[in-house]
Design a protein that fits this description.
Elements lengths: L6 E5 L3 H13 L3 E5 L2 H10 L4 E4 L8 H9 L6 E5 L4 H10 L3 E4 L4 H19 L6 E4 L2 E4 L4 E4 L2 E3 L3 H12 L4 E3 H8 L8 H15 L9 E4 L3 E4 L3
Length: 232
């Protein structure tokens, strides 16, 4: 662990859960700050250096979705939603509003730490002035300069839309991308909620990159929400 510890803000009104998270984070060497309502959490975020936010949606003063909106008006700090709400629609709304990930209660400390590491890696990729044009995950290698994707040594022949899709997933590796966002990015806003066209495109891409498209190891489906390119 680096000498400079990442500082994580826990916005959670359930004190038992807050203590559990705080204990797990400190064991991993993170510095923590806790708030038991939205207003206190936002005040801490404004006045102190925070590197990541763990946010419960069911807060006593106002809804966590509103907290995401307010944070995204001025900050790009990673936000991982932690909530007992299991509705796919709410997950999608939280992600479309700017949350980086979503964990449904109850969750293990192992799963929480894995999601936090992914969020921090995503921040590093966004902030780094990386001159590389070649990126790899597992057997997949993406050459952005040549606009080519390889599986091992085999060049994969992608359609233009398949290439747009894999590029967007690579740029957001490890992050859940909602169906709505992918539709807007690949086809434009006119496609609205037509997820069938997205499923068709995804099925074609999976047939080319996965050993077993029925049990994908690269592009993971977040049921009812969207997709995630798995970060090793």
């Amino acid at each position: 662990m680096n000498d400079i510890k990442e500082r994580i803000l826990i916005i959670e009104d359930d004190q038992q859960i807050s203590r559990f998270i705080n204990y797990a984070l400190e064991l991993e060497g993170y510095s923590t700050k806790a708030a038991n309502n939205a207003q206190n959490g936002l005040s801490i975020l404004v006045t102190e250096k925070i590197d990541l936010v763990l946010l419960d949606l069911g807060l006593p003063d106002f809804d966590g979705l509103e907290v995401i909106k307010r944070i995204r008006e001025w900050s790009e700090v990673p936000i991982i939603v932690i909530s007992a709400r299991d509705a796919d629609k709410e997950k999608a709304i939280a992600l479309d509003l700017g949350a980086d990930d979503f964990l449904t209660k109850p969750f293990s400390s192992v799963e929480l730490m894995a999601r936090i590491r992914v969020a921090f890696r995503h921040v590093q990729r966004k902030s780094a002035l990386d001159p590389r044009t070649i990126f790899s995950i597992g057997e997949l290698t993406l050459d952005m300069e040549k606009r080519l994707l390889y599986r091992g040594k085999e060049e994969l022949h992608l359609t233009p839309l398949e290439y747009q899709l894999i590029i967007y997933l690579f740029k957001n590796i490890g992050k859940v991308i909602t169906n709505q966002t992918l539709l807007s990015e690949i086809w434009g806003h006119g496609y609205g909620s037509d997820t069938q066209v997205l499923r068709t495109l995804m099925a074609g891409l999976r047939r080319k990159i996965e050993d077993n498209p029925a049990k994908p190891k690269y592009i993971i489906t977040e049921i009812g929400v969207g997709y995630r390119l798995k970060d090793e």
